[in-house]
Amino acid sequence: MILITLNSVNTVLIRLTDERWEHIVDAHPYMTGYYDDMLDAVKDPEYILPGHKGSLIAVVGLGKKRILHVMYRELSGNDGFIITAYIKPSFERKRALWRRDDR
């Protein structure tokens, strides 16, 4: 079941399914409290990084050494889905495909 849909910075409709949300909180239980932040990251990221096998990673800072990463895939011009989300202490800015400041 689809929990929510939202647009990426590329205006692709990205869906979050209940199965993916369960995967995220099973793998990273702390993410339960970051549901809205995760959605906001896809809608309005600070950076977009390349992910694995064509996926993208939306990145936003949550504070000092707390960087939210949301991996998603854009399947077509109007369909995509969130794969996973997690928090890391840093990320490689030089790998960025897109920056909010470059809009």
Explain what you see.
There is one protein chain. This protein is α+β, with helices and mostly antiparallel strands and 103 residues long. The protein has one domain (2-102). Helices cover 18% and strands 45% of the residues. The protein is built from 2 helices and 7 strands; from the N terminus they run ββααβββββ. The protein has helices spanning 18-27, 35-43; strands spanning 2-7, 13-17, 47-50, 56-63, 66-76, 79-88, 98-99. It has a 7-stranded mixed sheet. A hairpin with a 5-residue loop joins strand 1 (2-7) and strand 2. The protein is globular. The termini are far apart. The model has no long low-confidence stretch (mean pLDDT 96).
Poorly predicted residue ranges: none
Class derived from helix and strand content: alpha+beta
The strands making up the biggest β-sheet line up spatially as: 1-2-6-5-4-3-7
Count of individual domains:
1
Shape: globular
Tell me the strand percentage band. 35-45%
Give me the number of helical elements: 2
Largest sheet: 7 strands, mixed
Number of strands: 7
Helical proportion, percent range: 10-25%
Round the mean pLDDT to the nearest integer and report it: 96
Brief description of this entry?
With 103 residues, the protein is an alpha+beta fold. The protein is built from 2 helices and 7 strands.
Describe the SSE topology.
Blueprint: E1 2-7, E2 13-17, H1 18-27, H2 35-43, E3 47-50, E4 56-63, E5 66-76, E6 79-88, E7 98-99
Parallel strand pairs: 2-6
Antiparallel strand pairs: 1-2, 3-4, 3-7, 4-5, 5-6
